[in-house]
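step=encode ok
step=design start
structure_in=
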């Protein structure tokens, strides 16, 4: 395969009769997938989408999403998968911030789009109309340097940044990953991660490069049932998902047949890694980020020998480079490094003079050349694989009439790793109903960011604030708790 293009047509011809995608309702071979991309691209042209357009996708995991994504990039457009968990106002603001004027949206989420500046294309109707289009013999060769996707990732203020990734970023990330975790035709990688996360998109490219199958899961199905019934061989999980699987009595038995469980998204608890390793599960730990198109380092399969380095994230994969700054910060670059953050007027690439991207993560290299991740330079924490910035939640809490100040901190949680709790300062004489706070935050941000427990404002706030990362339970009494 030429290293200047991602030759999708050649891949689909080579693996023509192999299953490319399965989502419970559709089983699509590589040949069928190629024809559907050509049809969809023709249909997108007819509705006015052209090279350079930024087009949002608001839909749960299904075969529609990869189909429309590759149809868009085959036209030279840029696909913008959007987190359907975000409230309508935030979705509209995010798309406006990158001059995205069109959106392909499933019927389920059509009410989330209210901006008049957005031209809405309803996905189910669009797909139905494709039956009228005959696929041509068009060849799909995607240039590695062409802009492909914009993935929203949290910034230091909690407001999502728009990271622009090229075909080459996705291609080289998959290529390096496949050299570490082997894939072949007949293998089936369960795509549990949503495709608005770069980790989900990475699975598509890995399977397409190898003729394997992406089994898409929307989130409503039983993970256990799909793994057993669909002969899953590879699995990507965040620690919360692995925790839930291991909580089931029969889980280790049916997971033992898997070839790989790639665990990332956030640091996993020591006990969780030990439990999985003792059960002889094929566990691989990884460190990655959106700006590097997913994985940067990954371990070999963990083998339990009585002692594990729980923070070991493995060796740097091919096509990436990594170094540790004198202050301990992890710096990265290479073929997978994104093109930059997208704004209304320009694309901004925040690199130092030597071309390194500063991750804000802290780490070190051990004696065997493995990355050991130590933590964050800022206040961000991760809950169930999702980035949470305390500043964002604090800002929304202080917008509520009657709350004059707020501090949000993480507390350990067995299932999610960490969960946010808040200290709120109530204006003297004011009373605030719990439902009012909950309803206000639900309109402003995703549900997983909303604190479940609220404490009254501590008198020693000035001593607490500089140490928000060293939270200790204060004997000040619980005031609000949402079930």
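sequence_out=
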């Amino acid at each position: 395969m030429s290293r200047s293009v991602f030759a999708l047509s050649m891949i689909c011809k080579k693996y023509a009769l192999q299953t490319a995608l399965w989502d419970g309702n559709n089983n699509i071979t590589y040949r069928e997938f190629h024809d559907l991309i050509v049809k969809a691209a023709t249909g997108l042209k007819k509705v006015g989408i052209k090279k350079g357009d930024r087009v949002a996708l608001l839909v749960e995991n299904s075969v529609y999403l990869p189909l429309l994504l590759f149809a868009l990039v085959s036209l030279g457009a840029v696909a913008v998968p959007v987190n359907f968990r975000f409230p309508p106002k935030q979705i509209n603001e995010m798309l406006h911030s990158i001059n995205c004027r069109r959106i392909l949206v499933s019927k389920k989420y059509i009410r989330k789009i209210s901006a008049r500046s957005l031209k809405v294309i309803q996905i189910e109707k669009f797909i139905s109309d494709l039956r009228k289009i005959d696929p041509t013999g068009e060849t799909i060769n995607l240039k590695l340097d062409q802009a492909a996707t914009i993935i929203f990732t949290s910034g230091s203020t909690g407001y999502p940044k728009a990271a622009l990734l090229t075909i080459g970023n996705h291609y080289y990330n998959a290529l390096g990953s496949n050299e570490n975790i082997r894939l072949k035709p007949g293998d089936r990688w369960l795509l549990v991660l949503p495709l608005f996360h770069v980790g989900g998109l990475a699975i598509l490219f890995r399977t397409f490069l190898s003729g394997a199958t992406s089994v898409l899961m929307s989130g409503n199905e039983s993970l256990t049932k799909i793994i057993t019934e669909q002969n899953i061989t590879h699995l990507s999980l965040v620690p919360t998902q692995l925790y839930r699987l291991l909580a089931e009595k029969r889980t280790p038995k049916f997971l033992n047949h898997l070839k790989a469980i790639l665990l990332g998204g956030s640091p996993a608890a020591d006990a969780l890694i030990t439990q999985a390793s003792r059960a002889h599960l094929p566990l691989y730990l990884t460190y990655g980020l959106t700006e590097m198109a997913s994985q940067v380092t990954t371990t070999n399969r963990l083998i339990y020998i009585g002692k594990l380095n729980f923070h070991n994230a493995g060796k740097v994969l091919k096509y990436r480079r990594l170094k540790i700054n004198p202050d301990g910060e992890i710096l990265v670059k290479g073929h997978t490094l994104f093109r930059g953050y997208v704004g209304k007027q320009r694309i901004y690439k925040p690199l130092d003079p030597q071309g390194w991207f500063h991750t804000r993560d802290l780490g070190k290299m051990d004696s065997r050349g493995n990355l050991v991740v130590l933590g964050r330079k800022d206040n961000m924490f991760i809950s169930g694989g999702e980035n949470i910035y305390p500043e964002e939640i604090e800002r929304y809490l202080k917008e509520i009439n009657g709350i004059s100040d707020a501090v949000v901190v993480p507390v350990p949680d067995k299932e999610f790793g960490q969960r946010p709790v808040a200290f709120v300062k109530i204006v003297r004489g004011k009373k605030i109903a719990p439902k009012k706070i909950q309803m206000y935050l639900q309109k402003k941000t995703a549900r997983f960011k909303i604190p479940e427990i609220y404490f009254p404002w501590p008198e020693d706030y000035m001593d607490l604030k500089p140490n928000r990362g060293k939270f200790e339970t204060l004997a000040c009494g619980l005031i609000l708790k949402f079930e």
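step=design ok
step=annotate ok -> Confidence is low (pLDDT under 50) at residues 460-483.
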